[in-house]
Amino acid sequence: MDRFRYLNDWEEEILAFKRATDGRCVSRRAFCAGLAALGLSPLVATMQPVDAKEPDIVLVNWGGDSVKAMDQAYVQPFLEANPGEGIKIDSSGATSGKIKAMVEAGRVVWDMCDRAFHASLQLGREGLLEEIDYSVVDKSKVLPGFAGRWGVANYCFANVLTYDTRAFGGRKPESWADFWNIKDFPGRRTLRRHIDSTLEVALLADGVPIDKIYPIDVKRAFDKVKQIKDHVTFWSSHADSYKLLRDGEVTMGCLAHTRSVTLRRDTNGAIDFTFNQGIFWVSGWIVPKGNPAGKRVWKMIASTQDPAGQIELLKLMGNGPVNPAANALITPDLAAINPSSPENLKRMVVADMEWYAANSNTVLNQFIDNVLS
Amino acid sequence: MIAGSRQTRAFLLFLTPSLVFLTVLFAYPVGKVLLVSVTDPELGLQNYRLLIENAALRRVFLTTVRIAGLTTLIAVAVGYVLAYRMHTAGERELRLIIFCLMFPLWTSVLVRAFSWVTLLQSNGIVNGILIGTGLTERPIQLVRNEIGVLIGMVHVMIPYATLPIYAVMKGIDARLPQAARSLGASSLQTFVRIFFPLTLPGIGAAMILVFITSIGFYVTPIVLGGGKVVMIAEYISVQITETLRWGLGAMLATVLLAIVLLFVFAFRRLTVLREQGA
User: Fold this and answer.
1) Which of B121, B227, B243 lies at the smallest CB-CB distance from A236?
2) Which site among A7, A194, A249 would you substitute to test the B interface, given the most B Cβ atoms closer than 10 Å to its Cβ?
3) How many domains are there within chain A?
4) pTM
5) Which A-chain residues 245-274 have CB contacts (< 8 A) with chain B?
6) Residue A115 is part of a domain; what is its CATH number?
7) Alpha helices in chain B (DSSP H)
């Protein structure tokens, strides 16, 4: 089991880089775009099956385990309820760049994309997204604050303090202040190579109270990160964050809780984590403007609001439900690893989507400029 | 004459598909990228001005050039030794070296980067040997930093450095070193004064090839650099896919392309001049 998880991670890693190095492997879509550019698309068009029905709804996610998990949790229940429909999962990852390119070129091939919730505000304000149709999608089935104009929550996760219990002679780190305390908790650290969560945990370590994080004091956060920079390896992919702790390269890290749960299981508890002072994030569905399946997509998105599917996703991936009704239905051991369970959520910082929508582009560049390079 | 022009025509005919292909799928999109660098967010040279005003951008460029430069020096030095060994090797050994040289080329850069992490990390094999033999007491940080990036990049670039040098060595008239020896030069003198100067074109070709490839490295620095080595390719990717500053990204891509073209052009000038001289 452990082994499979590990292999899946590598696979995910390779997929992630295939995405990043587009030019090196030509996808079918790129090939078709090439044909189109050469004026050869009529040839391809004639090769479509004669009885072609309405186009499948294309669901875009980030690959790896999430393809199978979303298929099981969201797609199959929808297809059972709607026999005439078809859904395709595209695991290539809906980056802002690709959505902008698609919408501006008028060749949108995606219907619903899994993205960090604040991207819905950024891209929506740039006019790149459809507005969520709340006559079909149900606002009451979403955590307060996450039924947005251009995006609606689909699952949640948290970035949490994760540590090697063998490294500190029986002591347990409990806060980000401990994370910054190299003397009493020796060893290397890992933080995400991004501003998401990294800035928040820096401020928490610097003594900012949990409810005073936003608006983020960027300079203060940068200075705090710079303080331990020499002890930090920054991770860029989830698989990498897992590997750093699993291989003992670091003794503490800020990881997505899904990986922390896996680490705890795979090491029989030698690596542990706490939701205390974690950063709570929500991912959402967004729909690129002019999506090919049109209004049919809303029915599918509404169907993913069913608590059963969301709990299934929690079982398979560790990503928590965003429909509050799910809490009444989950078992205690699942609730313990679920970020949106009330006892976990109340100990965490809920990431401020408006702050990220307004500042993330600028601050990310500043972070690369001033902290990483 | 007529035969000649017919040949030329046939030649052009054969060339047409690839020319069309290149124009449509390469020149046109690249041209559009260049255009974006002066039109986004508005018409003008503001993106290029950033190159002067923004110290961080210059730092990223400097890091890139420094790492690519060091990679070039190390890879070409190692490549030269390897090529010399190939030049003097018997047929069976030569086949073995070529196999060892080519095999990594068929392996994904990503897989190789992660293999290096496994080998070089603090509880990896390399540090195990260093500690076991008493060369060091505590593990040395060999990866997740600039040293790691250099090791990974040099490894990728060694075949590119070796092959051009080997090709030039193979073309050297074997009688020249013999003549030097027969005239009383020591083997060291023969190497320094006869053989080495004759291999300079190969060194030049290898350096250019390695440098222009290294300057665009993306995967290796991300995996082996521990997040703290930012090279230009990654910076561009962030601008294009994440922060949507396409103008800035396109400007950096254009500058990168210009640097590469400059090196290719300089190299061609050098070889043309030498051929004319010879």
Assistant:
1) B227
2) A249
3) 2
4) 0.84
5) 247-249
6) 3.40.190.10
7) 2-22, 28-39, 46-53, 55-88, 91-102, 109-120, 125-132, 146-171, 175-182, 187-189, 196-214, 219-224, 232-237, 246-277
Q: Which residue of B has its CA nearest to A366?
A: B56
Q: Classify domain B44-277 at the CATH topology level.
A: MetI-like fold (1.10.3720)
Is residue A320 domain-resident?
Answer: yes
Chain A contact present for B27, CB below 8 A: no
Closest-CA distance of chain B to residue A84, Å: 35
The size of the A-B interface in CB pairs under 8 A is 84
At B2 the pLDDT is 52
A46 located within any domain: no
Determine, for residues A243 and B117 on separate chains, whether the beta-carbon distance falls below 8 Å.
yes
Which residues span the domain enclosing A183? 157-280+349-372
CB contact under 8 A, A368 and B223: no
| CB-closest option in A229, A361, A372 to B243 | A361
Residues A37 and A130 in one domain: yes
Complex ipTM value: 0.82
Span B126-175, pLDDT tens digits: 999 999 998 888 888 899 999 999 999 999 999 999 999 999 999 999 99
Confirm or reject contact between A315 and chain B (CB < 8 A). no
Query: What tens digit of pLDDT does each residue of B81-114 get?
Result: 999 999 999 999 999 999 999 988 888 888 899 8
A66 with A125, same domain?
yes
- Which candidate, A275, A340, A339, A323, places its Cα nearest to that of A73? A323
The DSSP annotation for A313-353 comes to HHHHH-PBP-SGGGGGGS-HHHHHT-TTSHHHHTTSEEP-H
Over residues A209-228, the mean pLDDT reads: 96
Query: So where are chain B's domains?
Result: 44-277
